[in-house]
Amino acid sequence: MGSRSYRQFCSVSKALDLVGERWTLLIVRDLLAGAMGYSALLEGLPGLTTNLLAKRLKDLTAAGILEKRPAPTGETCKALYALTEAGVALGPIIGALASWGKEHGPAPEPTDSLNFRWVLILLGRHFVPDGPRWIVQLDCAAKSLQLRLGTPKFEGVEGTPMTPDLIISADPKAYYELLFESTAPESLLESGAVKLTPGTAGDPPLPIWKDFIRSFQLDQPAPTPST
Amino acid sequence: MGSRSYRQFCSVSKALDLVGERWTLLIVRDLLAGAMGYSALLEGLPGLTTNLLAKRLKDLTAAGILEKRPAPTGETCKALYALTEAGVALGPIIGALASWGKEHGPAPEPTDSLNFRWVLILLGRHFVPDGPRWIVQLDCAAKSLQLRLGTPKFEGVEGTPMTPDLIISADPKAYYELLFESTAPESLLESGAVKLTPGTAGDPPLPIWKDFIRSFQLDQPAPTPST
DNA sequence: CGGCATCCGTCATGATACTG
DNA sequence: CAGTATCATGACGGATGCCG
């Protein structure tokens, strides 16, 4: 509800009337990588309290930005919150915020929390299709991310792939440095911050790693969107 | 100050740490069209109180998003607040919000306030360069906006041009309908909501009006930015 | 335990008055 | 004109309780 609307004849303020409150765009950011249950959302957003999450979910549902639907059988939760078409359309806003924050935002601190979903968003913005079709598994803090490289459309979901071609493992900070280019990819390998494990087919890991770097342009500066 | 930082290892949250608070992005939006004084900002943002504006300006200055500089002689105010390079770089975020709000935001209400600066932002996002080089004056509620069409770079400032080729006058609501395509441009002319006056050179107004419509693609849907 | 609702303390915000 | 000071209110952070 726009109980505290700006009441301006301007679409920027109308957008902020719906998504301008605290935590709202961060909830949308996490849902951009796929539908989530209530507890998963809460766990992924440290500092957000349960009462406020309930209110945000209710308001966002009323605004038509997300919808609550029954979870498929076998899920650990009962209901999933998923973005509607209008919610997915918030992607460019999240993307523009990510670009600006990366360039002009405050530097991250070691105590900052890191969520694997946020990695997906970053990767999706850098993806270059039509490379070799590797399946890469990212491991971080007992969680896994499954990436399908080389496909026309970027695919990445949480979980372990059946037949990975390469397994990359690192701690959150190393992933952050890799994705934010504060460190060159090669030096992360040399320092041991990032470890490579051959996949099930047993291919040598280094060429696949180079394709991974190239697929997400991790050795180049991020593109700046136009106005 | 990020006194209430999200503390997440994510550039989206880092951006919101600086510009996520209430009113902040609306201040930036207004400054995107040019530097403004304190009182002009306050007047253009109904509902924002003077103490909060002072705090926002202080915080944004500390964050390096805008800078306070002495006003040029002849100005009505003493100091101007101008966006820094980092502040101008927020443009794509404002643009993405404008696109989304236009498509998915709540409908405007007749009591909403309208600021001529917001028109400039909308026009800038739709501009197609290299048409005929007309100078068009927009009149609305005792204020004037000066647009230079056809130049490679879009130019628009508040004030009255010396030699307009066409003067368009309408009330705020008609401008909004024109810019937001809820009504076709032709019908706004026919209904008398928009009035055309020949400029100093005395050219017939209708062809220049059609160039104006074409220059800002006001008869076409807005382009949707990519993720 | 997942999915909230309630209660309370604190802080950000809104309204008004006042000052250099 | 360009803010600062003061106070009231509502939003938010934290803990806990309820209900399937």
Sum up the structure in keywords.
DNA-binding; homodimer; 227 residues; 7 strands; 10 helices; five-stranded mixed sheet; alpha+beta; two-stranded antiparallel ribbon
Overview of the molecule:
The structure is a homodimer of 227-residue chains. Chain A has ten helices and seven strands. In chain A, 41% of the residues lie in helices and 16% in strands. The mean pLDDT of chain A is 87. The longest helix of chain A is centred in the middle third of the chain and has 14 residues. The radius of gyration of chain A is 19 Å and the shape is globular. In chain A, helix 7 packs parallel to helix 8. The structure holds a DNA duplex (20 and 20 nucleotides).
Characterize this entry briefly:
2 copies of one chain form a homodimer. By secondary structure, chain A is an alpha+beta fold.
Secondary-structure blueprint:
2 copies of one chain form a homodimer.
Chain A: H1 11-19, H2 24-31, H3 38-44, H4 50-62, E1 66-70, E2 79-83, H5 85-88, H6 91-104, H7 116-126, E3 135-140, E4 143-148, E5 155-158, E6 166-170, H8 172-180, H9 185-190, E7 194-198, H10 205-215
Parallel strand pairs in A: 3-6
Antiparallel strand pairs in A: 1-2, 3-4, 4-5, 6-7
Helix pairs in contact in A: 7-8
Chain B binds a DNA duplex (20 and 20 nucleotides) through residues 3-4, 21-23, 37-39, 42, 47-55, 76-79.
